[in-house]
């Protein structure tokens, strides 16, 4: 068998959630040996995600971890104020380490080869990306499109090595890489139990807070034709307007709440 890809996806309830998860799952259904770790930002698993996953046709783990209120963006806060999805990604890491500790024999050997990727629910992923990252010895990296106020950000490769980063902002961060731009071998995650995302990290430092525990720039493995191809896009979905829904609701004519959207 080819190495497994464990994909950790934080997700939270909002109008577009099921649409995002549908799109994402239809990508993942095309990827062999993918195990989806879905972590809801919720106090308990929701019926929507529970039913969705059961019908998805994917192999998955369904977890939940509520972001504490003081760590969550409040209505009206600028979007850069607090990192999103940190607690959920850490919960995914916890699950992996628990699974890793329990594995024996052939199962444990297979985990040695596996790779972990953090896939937000709203990005757009090329199928080719997964074949690029499947063979990751430590940490692999590649360009991300439409991110950081740029057409793309990417590691710059010279003589097969990452020497710096093409980014519009704070290039001297330890790892100026978007969450969508790296994958980590499961072995490295299991042998470095202290590696986690710092939910209090400054804007743009969440990825660094995790990767610093695992590698140096010298270790990074460039993928996607030496980081010359964009295979993932940091797309964001517009919040749907509910103006007419609100008006109708006041007249008692809102959309049937029993219909799941
Ligand atoms: N997310 C979450 N709880 C929140 C906000 C976001 O679990 O309160 C998840 C979201 O579903 C996504 C990830 O965290 O998978 C990153 O969030 P978002 O896409 O909003 O961040 P951005 O694209 O703006 O960096
Ligand atoms: Mn996003």
From TrEMBL:
Its EC number is 2.4.1.135. Keywords: Coiled coil, Disulfide bond, Glycoprotein, Golgi apparatus, Manganese, Membrane, Metal-binding, Signal-anchor, Transferase, Transmembrane, Transmembrane helix. It is found in: Endomembrane system; Golgi apparatus membrane. The keyword Metal-binding applies. It is a single-pass type II membrane protein. It is an enzyme of class 2 (transferase). Its cofactor is Mn(2+). The record marks 153 as: Interaction with galactose moiety of substrate glycoprotein. It catalyses: 3-O-(beta-D-galactosyl-(1->3)-beta-D-galactosyl-(1->4)-beta-D-xylosyl)-L-seryl-[protein] + UDP-alpha-D-glucuronate = 3-O-(beta-D-GlcA-(1->3)-beta-D-Gal-(1->3)-beta-D-Gal-(1->4)-beta-D-Xyl)-L-seryl-[protein] + UDP + H(+). The active site is at residue 207. Residues 241-261 are annotated as: Disordered. UDP-alpha-D-glucuronate binds at residues 10-12, 41, 84, 89, 120-122, 234-236. Signal peptide: none annotated. Pathway: Protein modification; protein glycosylation. GO terms for cellular component: Golgi membrane. Its main location: membrane. Mn(2+) binds at residue 122. GO terms for molecular function: galactosylgalactosylxylosylprotein 3-beta-glucuronosyltransferase activity; metal ion binding. Belongs to the glycosyltransferase 43 family. This is Galactosylgalactosylxylosylprotein 3-beta-glucuronosyltransferase. It comes from Sinocyclocheilus anshuiensis. The gene is LOC107669233. The chain holds residues 70 to 330 of 330 of the full protein.
């Amino acid at each position: 068998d080819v190495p497994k890809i464990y994909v950790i996806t934080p997700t939270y309830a909002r109008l577009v959630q099921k649409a995002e998860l549908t799109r994402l799952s239809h990508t993942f259904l095309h990827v062999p040996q993918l195990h989806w770790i879905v972590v809801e930002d919720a106090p308990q698993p929701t019926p929507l995600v529970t039913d969705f996953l059961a019908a998805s046709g994917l192999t998955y783990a369904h977890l939940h971890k509520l972001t504490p209120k003081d760590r969550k963006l409040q209505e009206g806060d600028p979007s850069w104020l607090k990192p999103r999805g940190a607690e959920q990604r850490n919960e995914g890491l916890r699950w992996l380490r628990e699974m890793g500790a329990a594995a024996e024999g052939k199962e444990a050997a297979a985990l040695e080869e596996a790779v972990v990727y953090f896939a937000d629910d709203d990005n757009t992923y090329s199928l080719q990306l997964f074949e690029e990252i499947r063979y990751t010895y430590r940490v692999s990296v590649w360009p991300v499109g439409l991110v950081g106020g740029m057409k793309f950000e990417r590691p710059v490769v010279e003589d097969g090595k990452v020497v710096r980063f093409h980014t519009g902002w704070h290039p001297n961060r330890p790892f100026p890489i978007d969450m969508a731009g790296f994958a980590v071998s499961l072995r490295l995650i299991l042998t470095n139990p202290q590696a986690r995302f710092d939910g209090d990290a400054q804007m743009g430092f969440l990825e660094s807070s995790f990767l610093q525990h695992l590698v140096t720039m010298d270790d990074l493995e460039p993928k996607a034709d030496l980081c010359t191809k964009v295979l993932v896009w940091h797309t964001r979905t517009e919040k749907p307007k509910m103006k007419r829904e609100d008006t109708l609701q006041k007249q008692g004519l809102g959309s049937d709440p029993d219909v799941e959207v």
